[in-house]
Amino acid sequence: MNDQELLSVVQEYGGPLYVYDTAVMQAQYKRLQQAFTGVNKLRVHYAVKALSNISVLKYLHSLGAGMDTVSIQEVRLALEAGIPAEEIIYTPNGVSMEEIEKAASIGVQINIDNLSVLEQFGTKHPKTPVCIRINPHVMAGGNTNISVGHIDSKFGISIHQLPHIKRIVENTGMWINGIHMHTGSDILDIEVFLYASEILFKAAEHFEDLEFIDFGSGFKVPYREGDIETNVEEFGEKLSHRFNEFCQSYGRDLTLAFEPGKFLVSQAGKFLAKVNVVKQTTSTVFAQVDSGFNHLIRPMLYGSQHYISNISNPDGRERFYSVTGYICETDTFANNRRIAEIREGDILAFHNAGAYCFTMASNYNSRYRPAEILWHKGKSHVIRERETFDDLIVKQKVLEF
Which residues are involved in binding pyridoxal 5'-phosphate (predicted)? Predict the structure, then answer.
C-alpha cells in the first residue's frame, strides 16, 4: 500500500486503526516456501498469537498455512476460520490438564513441554499422538523477553532430561509423532539456529515413529530502513541439506515444520494515528497522537523500534521528534526520531505493526481498541469494527447502593 491509499483508508474509517496488506503476507509466505524447496515435505503453521483476526487466519490458510496455537481460545479461533483440526498444532505452557484434554478431544496436534504433563497425558491417552517440545539450552532472540530456548526459560523440556522423557514414553506406551523446539524471536545468527537444530536431530534419534520435526521460528524482519534481517534463503539451503541427511539416516521422509508469526504478518501491518498536538518544550519537540501504549505497547514493553513516517507530509523537511501518546503515564513510541516535519492533524504510520500489536492492545484508561482493516486486491475491508462505549460496559454488573 502506498501513502495515498493509507490516507484514503483513514479518511473512510477514521483513526486510529490497523491496516494489513494481504499482498505482503503472500510474498512472505512464498519466500519461506521457496527457501525450503529442497525438502520433500514442508509444513507451515502460522503462529496465531501474532495476529489472531479470523479473516487473517482464513487468508493465510488459503495460501496453505496451518495454525500454531497456544491456548484453547486460539484453537477455537482457528476452527472458526475453517481450519481443520488436523492442521492445527497446540503448544500450551503452564495450562491445566483439563485444557489440554479439551484440545486433544477436538483432534488437534498436541505439543507438550512438561514432564509431569507428559506423564499424566500419556497415562490417560496413550494412543493420542504427541509432539514433545525440547529446550535446547541455546540463547537466541533479540530480547530476553522473547528468547525462550535458554537454560532459565520456562518453555520446553530440558535436553538434559531426555532420559526422563524416554522413561515416561516407555512406561506409558504413548506415541511420540513429533519433536519441537523454539529458541526465540529476532534470530540473526543462522549458525546458532543450526547448532540448536543439531541438538534437536540428536534428540529425534531416540524416537522411532516420528512424522515431523518442528523447528519453531523466530526469523528477524527489518524494522526500519537498512535494518538487518534473517537470511531465510541461506538458512533454508543449509537446513534443508542437513534435514535431508537426517531423513536418510532415520530411514523415513519426515515433514519439516515451522511456526512463523512475525515473519508472515509483521511487515504487512501499519498502525495509523493522527497528531493531536505538537508541543515544544525547553529540550524536546513532542508529537502527541490520538493513541497510546493501549494500542501499541511493544515500544514501551520491549523497547521495539517501529519506523514512523509522516504520510501526510512525506516530503517535508526532517526534524527530530519524540512521538508520544495520550495515556496518563509515560507513553512513548519513539524518542528523538527523525521524521518529515509534523503538523497538527497529520497522519503518522507506524510500520511493522502486523505482529504482536493489536493482539496486545487493551482498554487501559478506558480507551477503545481500534478498528482493523484488511487491504486485499486494492480494496479495503473492515475485519474488526472500532469499539464503542457499549463494549466497555457490556460485561459489567452494576450494583445498587
Answer: 218, 356
Longest dimension (CA), the chain: 74
Q: What is the CATH number of domain 36-262?
A: 3.20.20.10
Q: Is 46 annotated as a binding residue?
A: no
Contact predicate 51/73, CB 8 Å: no
Strand partners, 42: 256
Q: Determine if residue 20 is labeled as part of a ligand binding site.
A: no
CATH number given to 269-381: 2.40.37.10
Q: Which residues contact 21 (CB under 8 A, 6 or more apart)?
A: 1, 268, 269, 270, 375
Q: In the structure grid, which three cell numbers stand for residue 364, read together?
A: 487501559
Q: Establish whether 59 is an annotated binding residue.
A: no
**3-class state of residue 348 by DSSP:** strand
**How much is the CA Rg of the chain, to the nearest whole Å?**
23
Question: In the chain, what are the domain boundaries?
Answer: 36-262, 269-381
Stated pTM of the model: 0.93
Predicted pLDDT of residue 182: 81
**Confidence check: pLDDT of 290 > 60:** yes
What pLDDT is recorded for position 143? 42
Q: Could you tell me the three cell numbers for 365?
A: 484508561
